[in-house]
Structure formats: structure tokens, C-alpha cells
Amino acid sequence: MTLHPEDLRVRQLGERRYDSPLADLLSTKQTSPHYVAEGDRVLLEDTVSMLAGHGLPSDQVPSFEAAGPRRKIYFDPANVTAGVLTCGGLCPGLNNVIRGLVQELAVHYGVKRIVGFRNGLQGLTAQHRDDTVELTPDAVRDIHTAGGTILGSSRGGQDADEMVDSLVARGIDILFVIGGDGGMRAATFLGAAIRRRGLEISVIGVPKTIDNDLPFTDQSFGFQSAFARATDFISAVAVEAAASPNGVGIVKLMGRHSGFIASYAALAANAADIVLIPEIPFVLGGAEGLLAHVERHVRAKGRVVIVLAEGAGQDLLEDHGLATDASGNLKLGNIGELLKDSITAHLTGAGLAPTIRYIDPSYAVRSIAANAYDSVYCLRLAHAAVHAAMAGCTEAAVARWRRRFVHVPLSLMTSRRNQVDPDGDLWLSVLETTCQPAEFGPARQRERVRAGFC
Amino acid sequence: MTLHPEDLRVRQLGERRYDSPLADLLSTKQTSPHYVAEGDRVLLEDTVSMLAGHGLPSDQVPSFEAAGPRRKIYFDPANVTAGVLTCGGLCPGLNNVIRGLVQELAVHYGVKRIVGFRNGLQGLTAQHRDDTVELTPDAVRDIHTAGGTILGSSRGGQDADEMVDSLVARGIDILFVIGGDGGMRAATFLGAAIRRRGLEISVIGVPKTIDNDLPFTDQSFGFQSAFARATDFISAVAVEAAASPNGVGIVKLMGRHSGFIASYAALAANAADIVLIPEIPFVLGGAEGLLAHVERHVRAKGRVVIVLAEGAGQDLLEDHGLATDASGNLKLGNIGELLKDSITAHLTGAGLAPTIRYIDPSYAVRSIAANAYDSVYCLRLAHAAVHAAMAGCTEAAVARWRRRFVHVPLSLMTSRRNQVDPDGDLWLSVLETTCQPAEFGPARQRERVRAGFC
Amino acid sequence: MTLHPEDLRVRQLGERRYDSPLADLLSTKQTSPHYVAEGDRVLLEDTVSMLAGHGLPSDQVPSFEAAGPRRKIYFDPANVTAGVLTCGGLCPGLNNVIRGLVQELAVHYGVKRIVGFRNGLQGLTAQHRDDTVELTPDAVRDIHTAGGTILGSSRGGQDADEMVDSLVARGIDILFVIGGDGGMRAATFLGAAIRRRGLEISVIGVPKTIDNDLPFTDQSFGFQSAFARATDFISAVAVEAAASPNGVGIVKLMGRHSGFIASYAALAANAADIVLIPEIPFVLGGAEGLLAHVERHVRAKGRVVIVLAEGAGQDLLEDHGLATDASGNLKLGNIGELLKDSITAHLTGAGLAPTIRYIDPSYAVRSIAANAYDSVYCLRLAHAAVHAAMAGCTEAAVARWRRRFVHVPLSLMTSRRNQVDPDGDLWLSVLETTCQPAEFGPARQRERVRAGFC
Amino acid sequence: MTLHPEDLRVRQLGERRYDSPLADLLSTKQTSPHYVAEGDRVLLEDTVSMLAGHGLPSDQVPSFEAAGPRRKIYFDPANVTAGVLTCGGLCPGLNNVIRGLVQELAVHYGVKRIVGFRNGLQGLTAQHRDDTVELTPDAVRDIHTAGGTILGSSRGGQDADEMVDSLVARGIDILFVIGGDGGMRAATFLGAAIRRRGLEISVIGVPKTIDNDLPFTDQSFGFQSAFARATDFISAVAVEAAASPNGVGIVKLMGRHSGFIASYAALAANAADIVLIPEIPFVLGGAEGLLAHVERHVRAKGRVVIVLAEGAGQDLLEDHGLATDASGNLKLGNIGELLKDSITAHLTGAGLAPTIRYIDPSYAVRSIAANAYDSVYCLRLAHAAVHAAMAGCTEAAVARWRRRFVHVPLSLMTSRRNQVDPDGDLWLSVLETTCQPAEFGPARQRERVRAGFC
Description:
Four copies of one chain form a homotetramer.
Chain A: E1 11-12, E2 18-19, H1 23-26, E3 41-43, H2 48-52, E4 63-66, E5 72-73, E6 81-86, H3 94-108, E7 113-117, E8 132-134, H4 137-140, H5 160-169, E9 174-179, H6 181-196, E10 202-207, H7 223-242, E11 247-253, H8 260-269, E12 274-276, H9 290-301, E13 303-309, H10 335-349, E14 355-359, H11 362-366, H12 372-390, E15 393-394, E16 396-401, E17 404-409, H13 410-413, H14 425-434
Parallel strand pairs in A: 6-7, 6-9, 9-10, 10-16, 11-13, 11-14, 12-13
Antiparallel strand pairs in A: 4-17, 7-8, 16-17
Helix pairs in contact in A: 3-12, 5-6, 7-8, 8-14, 9-10
Protein name (chains A, B, C, D): ATP-dependent 6-phosphofructokinase
Cofactor (chains A, B, C, D): Mg(2+)
Keywords (chains A, B, C, D): ATP-binding, Cytoplasm, Glycolysis, Kinase, Magnesium, Metal-binding, Nucleotide-binding, Transferase
């Protein structure tokens, strides 16, 4: 694409003369991974070699190693034993990734032995290391039609050295860890332990997070399947809310720290009146609080539909459960129940005794099979993981960054968290679609619920 | 993200010592929009402002104007009349875009009059310009649940000046053209005619192509819905082929010039043995030709499943119909029928009289409603289009480029075509999944069908 | 079909010599609406006129009036005003019935005025009687694509005479009540009140029950849609249970008094290990109790999936909440929570600390749109209801009895309840499929869980 | 249910005074399996024992043997070898039936050897009889999630004695033939040959017909899945037709001799304007012919949607292809193409040059997996087939008759054909829904297309 900067210039009718009605939503916005500020521009090209021709000094700019097959590889395929495990909560696509790994290893590289460890990292403990599944192309042929994982999963940390012992005992040359936060952290420790012991074992992470909260990842695999399924439940409570006087529908969706599923599902279903996510704190009481907004909405439209990420409003829960679960995740208090009770009390007090329909469909969302898009994505991600491993990469994750498959150092995958940017364009779209105020609380912006649509 | 280049360095176990079994697929590959060559790297950051800090001279590098709301706008919303039309073939998401435009115009900018022109550009002819639909938030509230377009569509070119007359007659300030190749070309001419006449009418294109063949677009809206639906038909003929001795399943999918739907659907369904696309010519006869491969496959596995883009193998059709349709598109000969007949003759001659199951499901694919992902995408694209128009952009299309919404000069949208790169990673994934040879013909590479999986 | 008894005789190879392994399941079975005993036979023909030729004295045998159009009708269509309302819980198909009524009344009979009363019987109170919706073919054209009811619903009884006053005030000649138990009872009272006042108003019930618990009905409309959707949730918890060590999946489905949804969904999903329904009491403790069976199952297979009707095991709930809701239905205690807690305690005590996945998807099941079968069924039922009303029937419900559409006196519809027959062939199929014991408790039959399948 | 005739009497407001607008549709109707005439009544009870108490002489009335388990059985399960085969075209549910047979035989009766013959009756030829599949509960556990048949299928007749030889050679005691017309006929011949040779082999048919054209069957398994899927294609062409000026959508569905799929799918989709089935001949030309009606419809509404059974209008095809296929079925000429061409010519001649969207989705309909209802139905039918066989029944089919499972002599299953009754209530519903005339031709009844809805 030999294009000159001026080729990409867009025509403008003339000077901009009017204040935009949306201007007050824009005041704090600047360029970020989730927003391009007014006046900034998006590069046509995205690789070091492409930009070098335009004067970019290639050694000073942060960039990712491209994923993909290499002409020369590190391992002799005929002598490789690969291991695979899945850990953390379920997510659509786990079986697709397993299947893609096995297909690529066996069919294209000719790897003969592929071992599936059962129930996540637990499968690498001394006690369980021999309870494995042999993974062959035949054994995995149709597994992608089912949700879940044929290998089982679990949460929680095991001793890195005990796990390395298992790898050595089983003669593993390459280990694929398909997992989330916890799994990537464990894989990082495992890789370090392997390095300390001078072993030539490649550890490759395939990051999994239904919440889409891992960094350096366009959208995590399974995310699209998950939010698509979640829309069904928003529609369900919207139908319920519409069928009862003062109907209130509440759906609690996944999202401990990041409200992506809630945001995308709400945009797709287009039936949500309020979206609450962990990134945007909210206040219940007061004239600008959530309850007053709910009341105004029910009074005006006869109903309200609320989509809630499980991690939203945690500060509101007096008993906010600081205990950690086996994987070291904070346990969340149940914001759904709190809202249900608060809204019932508030609306009843306001003479609008509601019919509340509350559902938490998480298991029914995360256990589905991958949709067509995620099937392709998982397959290609698995191929990339195999190429990385066979080429001798280690302590690396495969990821998709702005539609390119890349290698990311494992430790980086847990160094930060992907979240909905309150100043990004996704959240702006949510606000535009729900017409909810930018914030619920004393400082919130002017009410923008308008007649007819929102 | 303050990351240094070395932070993104991935660890390598050691020197790469073995030739990869995939090496011969890699010989010709170099960095392109569809591939990142070995050794090249993908930039972490993607905007001019982000890269400027790393020494990129911003005025010399091709880049897109970011889409999104502006603080100051060109039109006074209270006095704006907007027009909307859809043209070209059906595509999932048309109604979602219409709905998103109306919602954003009416609710957020407060535009009062939105006119829908019927049946595409035909609606801008003098004869039909008054046969319009009034578009209000109420009228479009639920239209996204249905496929097709509430405005109707048509193909074919109208006189640009007659169309400008209609816009003037109807007092249109902003025209949104949701259309494909033909529509974008017409919008370009229309914009030029408006410019020549010194009118202050903004023309904004929302590019639509179920084939995903428009440039500067990650994936066109409706594409994911379409290929997901297409997988059902691959599965259908795969089931049929498996249930009959010498079963041959053939699905002809959309794709006049670009085999994206065929490729993605084949990857998602994972039941295709052969994928044929316009970008990769193939030979029928000879030991390395398609028919011999089909025969070998049927002999080995008892069946074969072929996914075919409608534009594949056009050179093979003696009567290749060079007539153009009303939009100026080349008419394609029916490669599906040719294959059906050739394969029947060949296999019968080889003593493998086949049961052929051939289906062309195009209408059933393109007429569905948008899935959850495309629903969100269409909504955000529509919002971007409205922001562009209200800000006074014109002769521009809105597009998504590496996950950023951008403005692209309209004329560029038809200046080139997005195609499956035979050296890109998508096609590589197809080859890895189907195990078909890289080419059917004399020069094709060694057979890679292996036992057990492919 | 002129067939003689001997034409229908089936050939038998010879004398039956062996005891069936299933014999002990058969001991108590006799002919009933849900079972045909060994030796009994099913009639080829099913109408009075058909059987009269075979010597059946037609006036002594219980039979239903056939539904359908009549050559002569009672009302002058040109002067008829019809009313429609929906009451009770949501059920797939409500909008289809509304639509079918309006279509048949308006298009085929030419009725001009059709009034929709809002929010069930509440809409017939003096306070709300004027808050109505005008129902025209145009207004209802696409409503069947959505679940719920465009008329709204509510529970609870209103004064019959006040409701008659509303009918008179609004000039209603025909009232269609689409509702459940409570609705049919209210319609019965309403019909009686009309009769007492000598009014010529027809009251026709269209029985609605997602639980399939109304009598004289093959399967209530929406039932198939509902149990089909319910299978998704059984699959979900089955996937979850399979992915965790000692995984326990529990789904609580609708079914206050009748376990049809639980039974059918379990048969369709084919992933349930235990089905618990109101008709079959069960014991938790003891060697033959539910908990011991669950423990054995988890020990043998590593997991268990339980499908539970909400009304199952109510006797086990100490606090069994005898309060009645607004419609006079008994309020049920939450057997799902009880089971969850009991199983957790029991398995933990047995050294099998479980991962429990419990979901109550009721709102997500009952709010869906009707599937294809129910769409046809609702349409035909609505047509039958209109024919009945126009012919002057009153205090009648339309129903489908052994695949014939019939009229049933309204009072009969609430005189008994359709339940799963513990001695019927449906429950036998459930036992055959789950391999659960016929009963959980001291007297239960021998364990029949066998290797490999169950 | 001790109910007296008077309990079932429905109240009537008074004398019927007006001629029904529908009266002329009723003139020829009388009681049949598809209609209950005005004045006739439907029996509450349906078995010989139940009716005996009401004076029905049980030995003179045609009745079916009830299906179900028997206390005493003919075969010793420990020594039984069962065979299974599927023949004829694909139909949703084949794998469910196979799975249900294997489950019941192995788990409940303890049968050890179950042999699957491949590719239908071809699998019983001397040449192929050893190419079998061993069917175990494990092997069939998940096969119901896929369409088609794991055993393969074929059409066409084999020599009965050769097939008996195969059964003897393989030691088969029980053979289950899952097939259509051709399969039931072959099974009849096979049973007769076994009888002639004095062998103790049970032959049990499980009738399969996606067209629903076999007699003594409420609805054949797979039928509901099939017509549900077919509605998608009606919706597709309806969307297409609505999006083009003078849009004409045509869907050709299965139905060689019986228009059930076309009728039910049209009722469910509710988008069809014209339904054409084999049972109702039609005329193309003339003022009352189909083409004139199509023209009127397009002129009035701008579009028309036609649903067509493949066997409709065969008399119109000059070249009506009287050759028979391998199973002895008449080959049908392509009525879809004829209609497409005739309508194009007619409308073009009338100045309404159409956009025609024609699709024949048969393979995509018949290859799907069974839906939830059919899954339950297939399972129960398979259970009934096993009970019949183990009890020593032979030359019998299992069927569902008015919701009871019964045994039907095999020869009867092919003695007549189930068709849409032009005087039955199903076709009446189609006419009411489409508003098409009762017949296309000189004698057709008055036009009933009315404003607004039809």
C-alpha cells in the first residue's frame, strides 16, 4: 500500500461552528489504547519494518515479536513430548484450543506424544501427574462442539518445583498452559523454576479470560461467545420487566474487575437502561444516585433493566469479603442481592412496588461452546502457540494485538489488567445507548434521558 | 503503557537447529497487511502522538483521521435534515446501522428530521424521491431483530446530478450511504457533484460488503454473522457426505473476488477438506490437479467436502459470462455446477460413483439478522458516522482499522480490494486445517494429507 | 380407513419365556391417560361417529365437542367487539395466541373492534378498564417474534361483578382469557356472573401453563419451547460438573406441582443423573436416600447432575412457607438451596468436597419466543378459540386432546391437575435414561446404575 | 377420570343465527383422521379397556397393540445379538434412535452384542455383511448431537434371501430397520423370508420419514426439527423479497407426495403468501390461475413469498420424469425451476420485472440434529422398539398414534400414505393464514385476500 499522508486526508465542509451536545462527555479524553483523541491520527502501518521506511528508529520503539511458523525450529519434532493443561474458570473455546494444539503438533510437526494433564495445575502435582489423558487427533476430533474442557480444570497454586519435577518425570519438552490470571502467574513461576534448573523445557501460555481483562489482547478467546450468550439473559429480564407493572429486570454478569461483558452485552442486546461496571463507582442514595434514577425511569417508562458486572459497586458492600479464594482472587460480595433489596425497598417506598426479576446466568454463559468467530480465533491462536513452542520460545504467551498474532513475555500478561476505560470509546457508546448519566453520584453530569428512545 | 523495547523481548531457549516441516510454505512470505515476516515486529502503539515520542516524524507517515465525537461541530443540529439509504446486496446488520444512525442523530444530537430513501440510489431519482420513509427512534426501535433492510435496496447507477437535485429538493444536509463497492463509487461521484455545485451537504459512506473485500477495514460489518451462518451449510453437506458411500459435499459461498467467507467458514466448521477461492487459481486435471486430489481423498476417507467461493476458478469456465450486471459487476459463471459435473464424471470414471450434495445457500446467509458482535459493531460504526457528519466531514467513509474507528476518503474505499493473501497467515491456517496442497496444479507442493486427522 | 381388527394384529415369534429385567418396574401399572397396560389396546378411531359403526352407544360415552368453524354462527361479525387479556406467569406463545386471535377475528370474520386489556384481570377493574390497547392486524403483525406478552400480565383475583361491569361498559361481546389455573378459575367465575345477569357475552379460555399441569390437554402451548430451552441449562451444569473434581450440577426448573418440564428436559438433554419431581417424594438420608445415591454416583463417575422441579421435595422443607401468593397459589420453599446445602455437607463429610454449580434459569426459560412447533400450535389454538366464540360457545376452553382440537367446559379445566404419572410411560423413560432408582427411600428398588452408560 | 357425558357438555349462548364467512370452506368436510365434522365428538378415552365399560364390544373394533415393556419376554437377553441399520434419506433423529436402541438393549436388558450394519440394506449383502460397527453405550454416547447417521445409509432394494443369509451368518436375533417407505417395504419382505425359513429372528421397523407421509403416526420423528429449520429459509426469502422492488421469494421444501413440511413451516414462519403442495393441484394460467394471483399480490404488496413442496404441480411438468430411482421412488421434475421461469416471464410481461430469490435448502434441513422434542420422541420410540423386539414381536413397526406408543404390522406401514387432507383442519389453517384461494384454477373460490394482513 504505497499511500502518501495526503491520500488519507478527509475532506471537511468548513469550520466547525457549534458546540456539540456531546462536548461535556469529551472533556477528559486523551489518546490511550481505548481512545484516540481529537486531532491525533491512527497509523496506516503497524510493523517496525513498515515504519522504518518512514523514519522510525526501530530499536527504540516498543514492539512485539510476531508469532507464526519459523523456517528453523528448536526442537526435533520426532522426539518431542508436549503437555497441555487448562486451569481457572470455564470459558468458551478451551476445547478448541486443545484441539488446535494437538492438530498442529501431530499433523503438521509430526509430534508423536501429547499428554493432557487433568484438572489444571493440580495435574502437575506428584500425586496426580500420572493421571493423564493421551491426546491424539482422533481423540480431539469433535471436542470443540462441546463447552467446558475435556481436561478438567481447577484453581489454586501448586509448588513450582514439584511441578517441574512432574514435567521432568514425564519427559515433557513443551508445556502449554491454557489459563487466566492465576494460570499465567503460575506459568511464569514455572518457567523461572525451569530456567533456574537449566532445563530445556518450553512453557507457553495461552491466555484465557472470559472477562477480557488480560492486557495486550484485542479480545480474549471466548469473549465474543460469552457476551453473545449473555445478551439472551438481558432480553429475558427485559421481556419480564415489560410484562409486569413496575417491572425491574436485573442481570448479573461476569466481570470481577472489568466490565467488558456487561458493556458489550448491553450494547448488543440494546435493552439495558443502566449498566454498572467495576470501573465506574456509583452511589445508591441521593438525588443523583442510582436509586433516584431507577425511580425516575420506572415512573417514566413503567420499567427498568439493569446490567451489572459482578465486581461493580464492591465498595458499597459493607461486608465486602476480603477473603481470597484458592487462586488468590478476591472474593466478591453479592452486589446483585444488594441492588435487588435496595431497589425493592426504594420503589416500594416511592409507591411503585416493583416486580423484580433477577438472574445470575454465569454458569450458563461460560459453559457454552465457542461460536464461529471464537472457533477460528482459538484455532489460529493454538497454531501460533505451537509455532512459538517448536521454535524454542519460552516464558511467553501468544496473543492478538491489533489483529496481529504476537508473542508477549509471560510476566507481562499479569503485570497489568485490561479494563473498560471510562474515557474510552466503548464506554462512550454504552452511555450513548443506555442514556444513563456518566456517573451516579453527587457530581454526575446533567440528566440525558430523553423522550422516545432511551 | 510505559514499556521499553526490552520489556517486550521474549525468551528463547537456544539456537534453532532443525528445519521446520512447514518451511516450504514460508518461502515467499513477507510483511504485508496480512502477514508479519519472521524477524519483523509489531508495534505496541498505533497513533501518531504515541509514536512521536519515539521519534516518528508525524507529518511524513500515512495515517487516518480518528473517528469519534468532536467538541465543535459543523451543523446546527436543530436545523439538520439527514437522509439515509441502503444499496447493493443484503448483508447482516443493515437495519442495525440504520437504527444506530437514527438513535444517535435524534437522541444525542437532537436532529428532528431523518428521511429514509427507498430502494437504494433509485430513491434519489426524480421519480422516486418523494417515496420516502420518516425515520424516528420509535420507528426503528426493533428493526435490528430482522435481517434485510427496512429501506429496501437495489443495484445500479443513477445520474449524480439528478441525485443532487433530489437532495436539494428534500433539503438534505447529510446523506448516509450504506452500500458496497457500487454504493461507495456512487457516493464518491455524488460528493464530487455536490462539491462542484458548492453545496454544503455532507456525504458519509458506511461501507457494506458481506465478502469483506473493501480495504482499510478489519472486517466489514455482517461478515462474522455471515460466515458463522455459512458454517451450518458446511456441516450440512459434511453430514450428508459422511452418510453416503463416496459422498461428496459442495457448498458454494459468497465471494466474487475475495475468499474470506469461504476461508473463515471452513476454519470455523472444521469439516472442509478443500477450500477454493478466487485468489488461488486451480487446475482440474492432471496428477496434481483438483480432480485427482478429490479422487485420492474419496478413496482414502470415503468422502470429501469442498467449500467454494463463487468467484473461484472463473478462468476454468469456458463460457465465463463477461456481461456486467446493473451495478457494473462482472457476472460470474457457475463454478459450482462445473465442479459438480466434473467431479461426478471423474469419480464415476474412477469406479467411485459418488453421491453429490451441492448447495448454494447465499440468500439464506446474507438475509439473517446481525449476531451479537456485529450488532455492537454496527452500532458503534453508526455512531462514528453520525459524529463524522455532524462535524462536517464529507466524501468520507467510516471504517475500523486495527480496532480503531477512522475516517477514510471515500475514493480510497474503491481504489483497491481486500483479498485473501496467498502468503498471509489466514490462508496458511486454512492450509494447516484442511491439509489440502498449497496449489492444485503442476507445480503444487508435496501432498500433505496425513493419516488420522486431515 | 376400513381396517378390520385382525389387520392390526402384530405377529409374535412365540411364547414369552423369560422374566424381563424390567419386570419389577411394571408391577403396579394399569391403563390410564399416561399408560396402556399390557394386554390392553389403543383404538384406531377416536370419534363418536367413527365408533358408532362399531357398536358404541354414542350417548353414554364421555366425549368432547369438536372445535372448528361452524356453518352458522351466533354473533354478527360486523357488530362484534372482542376483548383479549393475558394473565399469570409468562409462557412462550402468549403473543402468538394474541396475534392468531386478532388475525382470525379481523381477517376472516371481519370483526372491526378488538380491545386488549392491560396487565391481566387487573385490566378489567373499574380503575384500569380504559387503559386498553387497540389490537389490529398491523399492530400484532410481528409480535410473535418476541417472548412475553404485549398486553402485560398480573396475578391475583378481581371481583367478578366489577369485571362484568367493565365488559358491559366497553361493549364487549366476546372475551378471550389467556391464562393459567388462576385465569381459568377467574374466567369461570366471570362466565357464571355473566350468566346470572343474563348477558350475551361469550367467555372463552385459552389455557396457558408452562408446567403442562392443566388437564385435557396433550401438551400446553409453550411447553415444548420451554423444555427445549431448559435443556441448555442442564447441559451447562453438566459441562461445569464435568470440568471440576467432584462436580455437582443442579438445575431448578419450573414445576410447582407437575414435573413435566424437568422430565422432558432431562430426557432431551440426556445429561441428567437424577430427576426430582413433585409427584415422587424422596428421602435425603439413609442408605437408600438421595444423599447416599449422590455420594455413590460422585464416587463412581466423579460428578453428578441433578434436575429438580421447583415443587419437588416440599415436605422436606421445615419452613415450607404455607403463605399463598396473590393468585392463591401456595408459595414454595426453595428446595434448590436445601439440596445444595445438604449435598455440600454430605459430600464434604464423605471426603468428596464438591464444586457445586446451581442455577435457577426460570425467567430465562419462560420469557423466550415460541419455537416453530408452538407457533403453529398457538395459531391453530387461537383460530379454534375464535371459531368457538363466534359460534356462541361460552364458559369453555379450547384444548388439544389426543391431537384433536376440542371444547372443554371451563370449570373442568381447574377441576383436576395434569401430573407426571409415577406409573406412566414418561416416568418409566426417565428412569430408563437416568438409571436412578424408582424411589429414594427405605423401600426403594434395587440399585440399577450400571457400568458404562448411566 | 370418572366423567359423565354431560360433564363435558359446553355451554352455548343461544341459537346460531348468521352464516359464517367461512361457510364455503366447510361444505365438503366430514370426519376423518384429519378432521372432526360439526356435530361429531371426540372420545375422552382411547383404549379398549376404557371403552369396554361404556359398552364397546372390544373384539369388533380396530385397535393397536400397546407398545411398552412386558413382564415376560421371548429372548434371553444374555444370548441376544441385535443388529441395527438405517436406510433412505437423512432425517433428524437417526442417531438418537440408534443411541436409544443401544442404551436400552445394553443397559436395561443387558444385551452384550449389538452390530451396526453400514450403509443401509447394502450392509446386509454378502459383500458387505462383515463391514460392521460394534455398537456399545460408550460408542454412541454423544452421537445424538450430530445430524445424519453414524451407520451411513443408502437407497435401493437387496435380495431378501441374501439378507437373511447375512443375519444368520452374523447370528442376529433381532434386527432393527430404521427407514422410510423403501426400508419398511424391504423389512416386510425380509420378515416374510425369515418366516418362510422358520427362523426365530425378530424384525422391528422404526419408521422414518421426514415428509411425515407414513400412516398410523402422529408425526414422524425428525419432522418437527425439519419444519422448524425450514422456517428459516422461508424467513430468508421473505427478507430478500421485501428488500427488492417486485421481490419474489420461492422456497422448495421436501415433500414428494405430502405437503406437511411446507404446510407446517408456512404456518410457523407466517411469512408465506402461497403454499403449494402435492395434494392440491393447481393451474398456472387464466384469471384464476396461480400466475394471475401472484401478479395481483405483487401489485398490491410489492412482493410475494411462495412455499413449495417438491412434489407439487407434477402434472404441470411436461417432462415429468417417470423414471424411478434406486429405491423405486418416482423421480420428480423440478417444479421450482418451472415456477421461477413462469413467474419471471409472467411478471415481466405485466411490467413488474421481478427480483426472484429461489432456494432449495433440503440438504440443509434434513441433515440437522434432532431438536429437544424429537430427541425425547426418538428416545422413547427406540425404547418401545427394544421392548417389542425383546418380547418377541416381529414384522412390526413401532409408532405413535394419538400420543400412545403402539405396534403396527409392518405391511400396513406401506399400505397407504399419510397426506395433507384438503378437507382437514391443517390445510384450513394454512388457507386462513396465507389468505390464498382454496384452489388455483377455474373453479376456485372467491378471492379472499383482504386489506392489511394477508
